[in-house]
Amino acid sequence: MPKTVTPEVAGFIFFALALMVLATVGGMRVATKAGYPAWVSLLFLLPVVDLVVLLVVAFSKWPVERRLEQATRYRASAQSLGGLASPALAGRAQEPSYWGRPQPARPSWDPLKVRL
């Protein structure tokens, strides 16, 4: 006699799978923003490995932090030598120089701050 799945069990399985997919996609977004590859979030699906990965990710220096420190050190060393750091190496674009003149006002794209 074949066993059938009750609607309650089917609903629970569907909910659990949907929650797993949502958590994995969210984990992929967090991993890529932290500088890790997206597949790191798939390791959280494995029972014992997830604790190890969580400890490594929580207590190690993230790749994004390392790149930021490197860019900050490079920018500080270039400015201490009297030169300007290259925007490509520093990780951000330089503001235009106006040689002491007031900078032009930037338009506000906030709809609540409309100028009359």
Explain how this protein is built.
By secondary structure, the protein is mainly α. It has a domain at 9-64. The chain contains 4 helices and no strands. It has helices at 7-34, 49-59, 63-80, 87-90. The longest helix has 28 residues, at 7-34.
The chain-level mean pLDDT equals 78
SSE order: HHHH
Largest sheet: none
Unreliable spans are none
Distance between the termini: 78 Å
Characterize the overall form.
Answer: elongated
Secondary-structure content class: mainly alpha
Oligomer status? single chain
Helix count equals 4
Report the radius of gyration as a whole number of Å: 25 Å
Helix content bin: 40-55%
Count of individual beta strands: 0
Roughly what fraction of the amino acids lie in strands? Answer: under 5%
Helices, strands, pairings?
Layout (H helix, E strand, L loop, with lengths): L6 H28 L14 H11 L3 H18 L6 H4 L26
